[in-house]
Amino acid sequence: MDRTDHKTGADEQLPRLVEKIREGDREAFMTVAGLYQQRIFVLAFSIVRNREDALDVVQETFLRLFRKIHTFRPDCNFQNWLLQVARNLAIDAYRKNRGKTKGLEADRSVEDLNPAGEDGQDVQRAADMRREFIRCVDRLANRQKMVFVMKHYDECPYHEISEAMNISVGTVKSLHHKAVRNLRKWLAPQLGMQT
Length: 195
Hints:
By secondary structure, this protein is mainly alpha-helical. It has eight helices and no strands. The protein has helices at residues 3-22, 26-48, 51-68, 78-97, 123-139, 142-152, 158-165, 169-191.
């Protein structure tokens, strides 16, 4: 049985696994956690932009799953329900830590988007540019943002992003290309670039 067959089999078993979790079955809980932990991490990381906070969101999501499984209605989509729990927790974590969150460090991520001629004296301009850059990243379509964040914030190779998001490497590269193109377009006026 290859990996695709295994995943399909697990997805088909999901209603039974959810029912077993309701009954307190730890093995069923661990199976579901294994199925969704990467997806939840990617989602959380795209919002909080910090590995430790994203891992906290993953842990809290599964704690909520275990404690609140009785609130899940069987006629609903389980994956959507679980990802919504994770999304809400990530947004809460982002708001709570907003003042402490570091922006994307320009020298580590997208060197070609740095303001031309910055010599260390124009600190205010650099700070404004970083804020504008973060705003532009937040404007990206969800999948573009996830790919861009994993590639540049977490320095993940394309194949890891592909596995985490359950999409092909080609799709990852395409989403990354679109994200960079959009960022260049939106930031062109601040950078004095032609679009």
